[in-house]
Backbone:
C-alpha cells in the first residue's frame, strides 16, 4: 500500500517569487525507510511540513493512505503520523515524563497504556534520570532524544523526522539509527527522515530522494543511484595544516577542514595518484568507493567534482 | 501494536488544560509581582487619594484593581503564552496531534483563569482590609469573575497569535493594559473622568468587567449586569473565533 503519493507538489511562501518546492513528485510505500537529502534551503522541511498537513501546497496534491489532502478528517494524519520538527523546545513547560505521557495519551492510548509507553520510552532512550526536568534545562542532545521519543510515543505507523541526529554524539547517533531500523523491522513502521548525516543514514536507508533548489533531482535506491558515480573513488587526506602535500595538477581537492582534503578520483587514476603521494607527509589517508554523501554532493553540486 | 482510538473532545480538553497548567512553573513568580503586588500598590495609592477626595470612589478602586489583576494574569500571560508557543513550535506540535485548534484556545483560557484565581482573591481581600470596604458577594460573582477573565484572555490570545515575537506581544499588552485601565470608568468613577473618556470606555471590556464586578462584589445588582455580561460574552465569542482563525495551525 502507498502511504504517500505526492504529485507535482509546489509551495511558494507568501511574498516570495521562487518556490520552496518545485514540482515534486514521489511515492512512499508502507514499511519503507526513505531518506531525504539536500543542502540548506533545498526545500526538504517545506516538503515534510506539507506531508504532515502543516502547510498547504500552492500547486499539486498529496494522497495519504489513499485519502486526498486535505482529508475530510484532519486527524487521519495526526493519528497515523508522528512528526518530529527541527525545533527542540516545542513542549512548553512540561517535564520529560509528562511530554511522553501526554503525547501518547493524545495519540489515542488509554491512560494505563500511555503510562506504560512513557516508561518504555524513558528506558529505551535512557531518559529516566531526566524524567522530572523541563526541556529548557536539557542539553541539545538530550532535547533531541526527547523529541525522538515523543515522536515515537503511541507507536504511530508512520514517522517523519526532520534531522533526527542533529546535536547527538556518535554513540547516540548510532543508537537512533539502530532504533529506527528495529522499529521498521519489528513493527513495519514507515520511516521518512531528512538528514545531513548521509554516511550514517546509509546504513538504514532503503530509498533516497535528493533535493536541490526546491526540486527533487534524484530518487531511487542508493545502490541504483550510485551506479552513476560508480567509476568514482573518494580519497581523504589528513595532514598537518601548515604543510599540505603536493598533488598532481589535474586533481581538484575540496578542503573539508584545516588539514583535511577530499579528492574524487576515477578508478583508473587511483594507483598513479597514490604513487605520487609522499605518505610521510600525511597523518592519515582513506580511499574508498562512493558513499551516499558523494551521491548527494554529485547531485547538489551538479557533478562538479566528477 | 498498541490499541489506539481517537481522543474524545473531553480527553483533549482535559489533557490540554493539564498541559497548560504546567505553565505555573514559570508564571507563579510573575503572578506574585504583577497579579498581586501591582494591584495592591494600585489599591493603596488610589485608595489613599479616593478616601480623601470621594469615599464612594473606593468601590471603583477596589474593582478596578481586581480587573487590573485579571488583565495581568489572563490577558498578559495568555498573550505571552501564545506568542511563546508560536515562536517555539508548540502550536505546530499540537497541530500534529489529533486535537482540535479551538480546544487549544479553550484549554489555554481555562488553565490561565484557574492560575489567576489566587491573585484575584488576594486583591479582593487586600482591598477589603486596606480600604475598609464591606463586601456583599452575590451568588453570580464567580460567573462574573469568569466572564471578566475569559474575554481578556481571548484578547491576549489574539494578540499573542498575531505578534511577530514574544517581545512584540509583551509591549502591546503593556500598552493595552494602561489604555483599558485609564480609558473609561474602571479604577476612577465616571464623574471624575472627562466625558470623552467615559464614551471611549463604552467600547472597552474593562469597563463592563469593572461594572459587573462592582455590582456582584459590593452591590447593588441592577439590570446593567445583564448588559455587562452580554457584552463580555459576545466579545469572548468574537475573540475566540478570531484567535482560532489567526493561530498558526495545520492548513486544513
Residues:
Amino acid at each position: 500500500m502507498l502511504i504517500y503519493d505526492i504529485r507535482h507538489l509546489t509551495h511558494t511562501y507568501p511574498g516570495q517569487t521562487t518556490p520552496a518546492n518545485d514540482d515534486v513528485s514521489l511515492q512512499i510505500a508502507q514499511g519503507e525507510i526513505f531518506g531525504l537529502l539536500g543542502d540548506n534551503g533545498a526545500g526538504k522541511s517545506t516538503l515534510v511540513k506539507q506531508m504532515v498537513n502543516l502547510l498547504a501546497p500552492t500547486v499539486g496534491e498529496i494522497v495519504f493512505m489513499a485519502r486526498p489532502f486535505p482529508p475530510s478528517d484532519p486527524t487521519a494524519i495526526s493519528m497515523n503520523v508522528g512528526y518530529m520538527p527541527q525545533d527542540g523546545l516545542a513542549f512548553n513547560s512540561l517535564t520529560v515524563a509528562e511530554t511522553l505521557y501526554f503525547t501518547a495519551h493524545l495519540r489515542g492510548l488509554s491512560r494505563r497504556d500511555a503510562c506504560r509507553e512513557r516508561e518504555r520510552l524513558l528506558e529505551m532512550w535512557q531518559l529516566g534520570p531526566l524524567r522530572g526536568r523541563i526541556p529548557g534545562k536539557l542539553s541539545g542532545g538530550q532535547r533531541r532524544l526527547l523529541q525522538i521519543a515523543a515522536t515515537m510515543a503511541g507507536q504511530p505507523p508512520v514517522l517523519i523526522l526532520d534531522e533526527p541526529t542533529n546535536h547527538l554524539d556518535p554513540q547516540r547517533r548510532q543508537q537512533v539509527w539502530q532504533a529506527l531500523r528495529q522499529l521498521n523491522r519489528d513493527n513495519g513502521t514507515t520511516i521518512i527522515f531528512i538528514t545531513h548525516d548521509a554516511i550514517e543514514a546509509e546504513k538504514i536507508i532503503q530509498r533516497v530522494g535528493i533535493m536541490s533548489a526546491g526540486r527533487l533531482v534524484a530518487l531511487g535506491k542508493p545502490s541504483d543511484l550510485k551506479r552513476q558515480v560508480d567509476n568514482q573513488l573518494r580519497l581523504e587526506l589528513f595532514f598537518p595544516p601548515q604543510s599540505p602535500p603536493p598533488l598532481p595538477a589535474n586533481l581538484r581537492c575540496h578542503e573539508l577542514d584545516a588539514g583535511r582534503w577530499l579528492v574524487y578520483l576515477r578508478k583508473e587514476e587511483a594507483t598513479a595518484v597514490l604513487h605520487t603521494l609522499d605518505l610521510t607527509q600525511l597523518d592519515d589517508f582513506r580511499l574508498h568507493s562512493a558513499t551516499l554523501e558523494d551521491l548527494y554532493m554529485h547531485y547538489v553540486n551538479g557533478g562538479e567534482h566528477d | 501494536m498498541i490499541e489506539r482510538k481517537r481522543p474524545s473532545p473531553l480527553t483533549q480538553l482535559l489533557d490540554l488544560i493539564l498541559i497548560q497548567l504546567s505553565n505555573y512553573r514559570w508564571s507563579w513568580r510573575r503572578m506574585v509581582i504583577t497579579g498581586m503586588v501591582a494591584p495592591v500598590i494600585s489599591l493603596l495609592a488610589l485608595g489613599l487619594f479616593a478616601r480623601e477626595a470621594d469615599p464612594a470612589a473606593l468601590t471603583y478602586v477596589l474593582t478596578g484593581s481586581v480587573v487590573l489583576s485579571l488583565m495581568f494574569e489572563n490577558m498578559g500571560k495568555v498573550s505571552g503564552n501564545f506568542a511563546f508557543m508560536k515562536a517555539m513550535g508548540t502550536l505546530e506540535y499540537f497541530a500534529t496531534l489529533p486535537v482540535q485548534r479551538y480546544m487549544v484556545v479553550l484549554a489555554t483560557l481555562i488553565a490561565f483563569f484557574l492560575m489567576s484565581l489566587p491573585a484575584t482573591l488576594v486583591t479582593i481581600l487586600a482591598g477589603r482590609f486596606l480600604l475598609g470596604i464591606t463586601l456583599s458577594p452575590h451568588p453570580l460573582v464567580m460567573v462574573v469573575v469568569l466572564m471578566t477573565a475569559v474575554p481578556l484572555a481571548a484578547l491576549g490570545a489574539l494578540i499573542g497569535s498575531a505578534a511577530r515575537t514574544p517581545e512584540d506581544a509583551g509591549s502591546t499588552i503593556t500598552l493595552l493594559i494602561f489604555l483599558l485601565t485609564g480609558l473609561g470608568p474602571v479604577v476612577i468613577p465616571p464623574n471624575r473622568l472627562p466625558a470623552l473618556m467615559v464614551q471611549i470606555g463604552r467600547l472597552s471590556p474593562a469597563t463592563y468587567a469593572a461594572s459587573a464586578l462592582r455590582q456582584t462584589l459590593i452591590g447593588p445588582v441592577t439590570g446593567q449586569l445583564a448588559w455587562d455580561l452580554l457584552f463580555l460574552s459576545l466579545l469572548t465569542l468574537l475573540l475566540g473565533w478570531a484567535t482560532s482563525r489567526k493561530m498558526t495551525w495545520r492548513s486544513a
